[in-house]
Amino acid sequence: MANENQADLGGQITGTVLFYSKPEPLAIELHKGLGVKRMDGPFGFARAGHAVPLTVTEFSPAALTGPIIFVGEEKTPLAVMGLNPNENLFLRDDGVFEAGVYIPAYIRRYPFVFANDPNAQQSILCIDRAAEFIVEGGDMPFFKDDGTPSDYTQGCIEFCNNYEVERQRTLNFVDMLKQWDLFEVKTASHTPINEDGSPGEPQVIAEFFGVSETKLQGLPQPKLAELRDNGALMQIYAHLISLVGWDRLIALQMYKTASAAANAA
Predict the structure, then answer these.
(1) In the 3-class helix/strand/coil scheme, how is 27-77 assigned residue by residue?
(2) How many CB atoms lie within 10 A of CB 154?
(3) Most buried among 10, 16, 58, 84, using CB within 10 Å?
(4) How many CB atoms lie within 10 A of CB 68?
């Protein structure tokens, strides 16, 4: 799972974040004249995102696309977009997502990201200098002629600020689920069909943390009412409903594998 970047006083970035291979603090001295060029397929970078961080307010729309799971000690919520590492099943070869697929805000904020500066106790806006659509004289420049951030950059700063607010809300949501002991280990499995039509051996596809329906139903009424009133219950149900999406991913993977075999033949 990706960690947040950190910036030191020398302007160097440490840490790793999914998709960002060369993050740099956005600065007029380094990036004057640079900008983002318009591309027909701008999401090629997300091909490696088979599991993408998700904020809690995204659970409902993301549930329509695929499974929402929690991973690691921190129980980080992820939108599952593929079964194999570095393979996003919802992203076409031309860098465009399939119609109707929910694109997480984590992807939409790219190439911008905030890095934490532990010395100044503030966040620094960074860009991924390795992004293919960051070019000299881009259609959407980062800075105006007078050296101030462009309207495009200002809009991206606002988006990143909003994302950070939602990220904190997500941490609070997960902490509540931990405190109330609502998590359990879950597995996603698939039973293939043999050539004779009989069921084969079940295969475990993934193991992850999810909300236990039994524990949820066993909560006292006052706690259930609290979850309902603060909106958390709706997001919990979105997560539970989303787990049906494993079947969609399995079907997509089987279709892709069969198509590749047919093309090879």
Answers:
(1) CHHHHCCEEECCCCCCCHHHHHCCEEECCHHHHHHHCCCCCEEEECCCCEE
(2) 11
(3) 58
(4) 26
For 27, residues 6+ apart whose C-beta sits below 8 A from its C-beta are 11
pLDDT tens per residue, range 59-91: 999 999 999 999 999 999 999 999 999 999 999
Contact 169, 57 (CB under 8 A): yes
Structure tokens at 123: 């966040």
- Alpha carbons 165 and 174: distance in angstroms, whole number: 14
Q: pTM value? A: 0.88
| Residue carrying the six token digits 């806006």 | 125
Q: What is the DSSP letter of 201?
A: -
Phi-psi region of 11 (alpha: psi -120 to 50; beta: other; left: phi over 0): left
In total, how many domains does the chain have? 1
Residue 1 lies in a domain: no
In a domain, 117, yes or no: yes
Give the tokens for residue 249.
């991913």
CB–CB of 82/257 below 8 Å?
no
Among 56, 61, 68, 70, smallest CA distance to 182 is for: 70
Q: Is residue 123 part of a domain?
A: yes
**139: enclosing H helix or E strand:** none
207 in a structural domain: yes
Q: Which residues face 23 on adjacent strands?
A: 128
Q: Tell me the residue range of the domain where 216 lies.
A: 6-260
